[in-house]
Specification:
disordered N terminus; 467 residues; mainly alpha; globular; 81% helix
């Protein structure tokens, strides 16, 4: 037997077990609810930063646009490291399902090393190229130098951010969503507290204004990276880090990247499509009113899709473990249950966006009537497509948990690079139809993408994927 063959997950023959729906639901909720709590805090961090920016004494619209645009780059940094995180989750989940503990630990060590190295490289590049990056955002007026200062501060924390991201993926792949959720709740609370204190000068600290938002974020990421490294070294039922596992093992790395690279490429190319959207919006209005309203809409819509992300994470873990047990029927039931709960919550939130969207828009926008009106109209539009958005998130998570990342990448990019990216350019720059028209394009593309993702899940090819 070769060394590579010895590392493959054993596949003992096990008869499929039909478990009661209530039992699967309890497992699903046990995985999803900690992630949902984490998502709530993450959502509150975004709203907190937007609130602070929109309520600065001067240049609130510029600050709001800058914070919102920087959020896209934080998303991008997460996508860069998702090639490691997606592979970690899928392989560790199957290894746990097959009771192959040594492989789970090996993948954990390789993932941590790769994440730390990626973070150092990306952080250095971000610091060096902060100025041209800020120029590429097409932000107008004072929003551009604000974004530049945020990039420079954030660059020092990126190794810790990426380590934290991958550590959470390893733990969740092993079925432990409680530990990463508890850690991230602490990190997010620290982020909000530090940002408020440094922005407004609490407890004798200097009043830093906009820079306080960036410093609060950086402090939280550094703390989170150190905390999660210590957690992995101590070990939980999800994953444990052994220091000798940090040295490169190329067969394991190859397996990680075989799964993760399609997911990462999907995310990165999709990011460029979405960055083109924000660049178009930034160019549409020199006052930054449209940019601020766009980001306010996304912040408030996160009240809906945070539940979709939580149940997508749970679906990915349960599908991966079920396939590790050679039980695809169980995997399929888990995905449907995840959509029933997570999708139901998103549809309910969509109804609230349609009927009551003006009230949170007014609170978040500091009473600026133009921003309030645009935010309300965009929330009304996106409220109607939350069922499709949920399908894209949850069934997409289930497919990734099965290792079916290549097909998901093709489906997602086919709509984002055509309908989303080109559609926004047409309605925003060619016909100058304004932000609500842009959101009609965004909402329509999301719904179509959700239908395509669900169609792939129904087709069933994911049940035969080998990782």
């Amino acid at each position: 037997m070769t060394r590579a063959q010895s590392l493959e997950i054993p596949a003992p023959a096990q008869p499929p077990v039909t478990e009661p729906t209530g039992f699967l639901m309890r497992q699903l909720l046990a995985l999803a609810l900690p992630v949902l709590a984490e998502q709530v805090l993450s959502m509150l961090v975004g709203i907190n930063d937007t609130y602070l920016a929109n309520h600065l004494p001067r240049h609130a619209a510029d600050a709001g646009a800058a914070v919102g645009t920087v959020t896209y780059f934080i998303w991008f940094f997460g996508l860069l490291v998702s090639s490691i995180g997606a592979g970690s989750t899928a392989i560790i989940a199957r290894a746990k399902g097959a009771r192959h503990k040594s492989l789970a630990n090996k993948v954990t060590g390789q993932s941590v090393s790769a994440a730390a190295l990626t973070g150092v490289i990306v952080g250095l590049l971000m610091f060096i190229f902060a100025s041209p990056t800020a120029a590429a955002t097409r932000l107008q007026g004072l929003a551009r130098p604000m974004a530049l200062s945020y990039f420079q501060i954030l660059s020092w924390s990126l190794p810790f951010y990426m380590l934290m991201f991958v550590a959470n993926s390893c733990l969740r792949g092993g079925g432990d969503t409680v530990t990463p959720a508890a850690s991230m709740i602490f990190v997010n609370l620290l982020n909000m507290l530090a940002s408020f204190a440094l922005t407004r000068g609490w407890w004798g600290l200097p009043v830093l204004g906009f820079k306080g938002i960036a410093l609060g974020t950086a402090i939280a990421y550094v703390t989170g990276g150190v905390l999660q490294f210590v957690v992995l070294c101590i070990g939980t039922r999800g994953a444990k880090l052994y220091l000798h596992r940090l040295f490169p093992h190329w067969h394991t790395i190859k397996r990680l990247l075989r799964i993760g690279i399609p997911a990462a490429m999907e995310g990165i190319i999709a990011w460029f499509a979405n960055f083109a959207v924000i660049a178009v919006i930034n160019m549409m209005d020199s006052t930054n009113i449209s940019s601020a309203a766009h980001m306010n809409t996304i912040r408030l819509e996160s009240l809906s899709f945070m539940s979709g992300i939580a149940f997508a994470t749970a679906a990915a873990t349960m599908v991966g473990m079920s396939l590790g047990q050679k039980n695809p029927a169980r995997a399929q039931r888990c995905a449907y249950l995840a959509y029933a709960v997570g999708g139901g919550l998103m549809i309910f939130c969509g109804i609230l966006m349609i009927t009551l969207g003006r009230y949170p828009a007014r609170w978040l926008s500091a009473g600026n009537p133009r921003i309030v009106d645009l935010t309300t109209r965009c929330l009304f539009i996106t409220g109607f497509i939350q069922s499709g958005f949920a399908a894209n998130l949850i069934f997409g998570g289930a497919l990734r948990g099965a290792g079916d990342t290549l097909v998901v990448m093709i489906l997602n990019l086919s709509t984002q690079m055509t309908l989303r990216c080109m559609g926004v350019i047409v309605v925003g720059l060619w016909f100058h139809l304004g932000l609500p028209a842009v959101w009609m394009v965004l909402a329509g593309e999301l719904f179509i993408r959700g239908c395509l993702t669900f169609a792939r899940f129904l087709q069933g090819g994911w049940k035969q994927i080998q990782v």
